[in-house]
Amino acid sequence: MVDTLDRLDQLVDKSLRREAPTREEALALLRPDDFDVFDVVAAAFRVRRHFFGRRVKLNTLINLKSGLCPEDCSYCSQRLGSGSDILKYSWISPAEAAATAGQAVRAGAKRVCLVASGRGPGERDIRRVGETIGAIKGEHPEVEVCVCLGLLTEGQAERLREAGAHAYNHNLNTSAERYADICSTHTFADRVDTVRRAAAGGLSPCSGAIVGMGESDDDIVDMAFALRELDPDSVPVNFLIPMEGTPLAGTWELTPERCLRVLALFRFCFPDVEVRLSGGREIHLRSLQPLALHLANSVFLGDYLTSEGQPGADDRQMIADAGFTVEGAAERTLPQARHDLVAVRRRGAGTELPPNT
Ligand code: SF4
Fold first, then answer.
1. 169 touches 125 (CB < 8 A)
2. Residue 213: which domain range?
3. Ligand 1 pocket: which residues have CB below 6 Å?
4. E strand or H helix that includes residue 234
5. Any known ligand binding at 76?
């Protein structure tokens, strides 16, 4: 029988070759009976360190338009009929967004994520967001701008790209199987379609997950594998913030250990992709947050869309205390060879292995 540490070593070796775990390997990472959580963290950290060193990329969220969404995503405090006591406002001006972005950039943020509630943007919204991108890039040309406006229609990704957007975020959130349990106004297929449109339109695809919504281990693995098929450049992993006034209020099912196992699973599934520690990290990982930096190479700085996050100074202190460094604007995030499709031949003539014929 293979020792548990040998099994993790094998998983690390696969990951360093950018191979995905098998379904059984992925499930085992989530099961306390299979592996001790700290062995899992140590193994996944080897993958993280190989591709990203000890760098941590900082990102910030700006909610351009808050609340009053016609969609009914059950985890969201901005949803249709939400009873959450959140800020509600229509589009903030490009100048206000640029001022907020500037503050985050000066605090170390390398990416600014512009988010607006709603099913998807109309033409005026695309124009307005284009002006906002222009205002931000005018002051900080080096900053990466990611846009998150919901479902995209034909040609909108291209227009955002032309306006200076670098990336588009649209999370899959949960597995295809249970998507209808968390939302009735759009489908998993709609979400997949938008991620594909964003990539086809020249935007760097960002798509991730929310865990802690009653999903099983199989759901988490299904979601991770579905995301891998979309070949995202960035994968945010959120832990449900069970806001009062939403259908998932009172859903507190995550433990720090569970969060670490999920992050490790995503690291093994996305070895050379930006895995981002996202919403809910403070309340679910609590004192184990620094360990999550051994798995994720990217983190949100500051507040979330409708709830407050840890103070930025505490984040920067945590990063330094844990022996990590904030990634600079001039440093690459993704490994150089990520999209290199050339594989050096290691089979056939001159080797012990049969040819690929
Ligand atoms: S997640 Fe987005 S689409 Fe869903 S309810 Fe919230 S703001 Fe609307």
1. no
2. 4-326
3. 69, 71, 73, 76, 78-79, 117, 150
4. strand 234-239
5. yes
